[in-house]
Amino acid sequence: MARPRRCRRVCTEPDYSSFAPDGIPCGGRVTLAVEEYEVIRLIDLEKLTHEQCAKQMDISRTTVTEIYESAREKIADCIVNGRPMEISGGSYRLCDGSAVHFCRKKCRRGTGAFPESADAREPGTAPERCPDIAEKGEHVMRIAVTFENGEVFQHFGHTEQFKVYDVENGQITKEQVVDTNGSGHGALAGFLTDMSVDALICGGIGMGAKNALADAGIDLYGGVSGNADEAVKAFLAGNLSYNPDVRCSHHGEGHHHGEGHHGGHCGENKHGCGGNGSCH
Known about the structure:
Order of helices and strands: EEEHHHEEEEEEHEHEHEE
Number of strands: 13
Number of helices: 6
Largest sheet: 6 strands, mixed
Radius of gyration: 21 Å
Strand content: 15-25%
């Protein structure tokens, strides 16, 4: 009886889900699995050894080598033969923070940890958790803003912090910065719902996230840039400049922020493995 395939642990789903040659594509589309993308990222970009990569992905070194060779062959096929590539599917699960001792990134996922490195904490000590958001009052409006260094962060699916404002009688009564703990894309809508957010101010945002926010009853004001505090003040004064048609697509339209835009693509759910390691 064959052994069941073990779901491979990946840090996050890719930001860019498809690539195409500049010209007329030749041949069919190549599909790179998300775990193949992760191996390429860790070995070729992060410069991890196969052994380090195996520990971070919670698989054997032999499996890493097999995935790596398969991924390199697919990438070469696309480059040499001018074939479009899609990054999708595979047997993987998103990291829940359990790879913090191997990962070289600042990790906010799962535990709320934000160490400079795995060795930054004393052995056996628990990571510091982000502060809980206060319960919202009956007559309070709660506004969240994608936040980074005082500015409106421009990529909703990758925001690491929200600044949350409680408003009563048109006045800001409380402000708090909250870490997202590694949540991304569609999961952020649930994160905002759990905080009882009524309205979101952000830069670019994908259609899937927009739909999730709409389903949650959260009003969206996208395409906003600049200082976060000033954006909220403008919103309360009724003169916030925003783009109701803002979108962040992985099909090449780019990120649209107000009247301007810049290149980039937002990823989306790649249908990997569930949190318990089961594939769906």
